[in-house]
Amino acid sequence: MAYYRPPGPPPDPALVKSLTEQQHEMRQRVRAEPLAGEPRLIAGCDSSFPTPDTILSVFVVLKFPSLELVEKVYNYGPVDMPYVPGFLSFREAPNVIHAFAKLENKPDVIMVDGHGIAHPRRMGIAAHLGVLLDMPTFGVAKQKLTGVFQEPGPERGSISELIDAKSGELIGEVIRSKDKVLPLFVSPGHRCDQATATRLTLACLRGYKLPEPTRLADHWAEQFKKEVR
Could you give the 3-state DSSP secondary structure of residue 59? Predict the structure, then answer.
């Protein structure tokens, strides 16, 4: 996800309290489990903010394992919630849900450009969306949000664990997706486990840093921005 981080006063403490409580309630609904079967269709999801007050959310649907593009949709709309660090999923989720509703081909699993449970309260955008849609989801992020890790080896396919520094809990895996490039941070969202998230990420690599579902979602986001300008 491409985040817009506007300067401004500290967030309203009452809003932070409410959002924290909502995340805690949603966290109780997250389930870590393998997929019921091998996916036939896999989606990629990405959001960006063309202006401080608008959001563009994109879904691409690909056949799996061939990764042939089946469908691409977007939704462009206003952002109503202010920026609050740690709660970006609340800014993104409503528009992402609108984009998902436009899909004619519903995927078996969604790869989200962002974090799953590798979040301070275990509710990154992938987990948030998974709960709202009751869909298998996982996150593939370009930057760490929380946790500690040993740098994986320099070769494509090298993996290390992302660990919560306080609890020692495994919250994700750090994957070198291309030789000698910065790694990706992969974590399950909802109705998905770490092994599945990692396996599907590796299966969707085609020589780029990003796996095809999120790479193509990002690519089409740039194309769709031209339509809304």
Answer: strand
Q: Which helix (H) or strand (E) holds 222?
A: helix 212-228
* Beta carbons of 208 and 185 less than 8 angstroms apart: no
Choose among 158, 187, 162: nearest CA to 175.
158
Its pTM surpasses 0.90: yes
Known binding residues are 46, 113
Amino acid in the structure at residue 37: G
Q: What whole-number distance in Å separates Cα of residue 73 and Cα of residue 140? A: 20
Of the candidates 158, 161, 164, which has an alpha carbon nearest to the alpha carbon of residue 173? 161
The type of residue at 186 is V
8-state DSSP, 150: P
Cα Dmax for the chain: 48
- Separate counts of helices (H) and strands (E) for the chain: 5, 9
Query: Contact, 142 vs 172, CB < 8 A?
Result: no
Q: Quick one: which of 27, 34, 46, 54 has its CA closest to 221?
A: 46
187: phi then psi, degrees, rounded to nearest 5: -145, 145
Annotated binding site for Mg(2+): 46, 113
What does the pLDDT look like over 13-52, one tens digit per residue? Answer: 999 999 999 999 999 999 999 999 999 999 999 999 999 8
Residue of 15, 20, 193, 30 lying closest to 121 (CA atoms): 20
* Residue 223 burial (10 A CB sphere; 0-12, 13-18, 19+): exposed
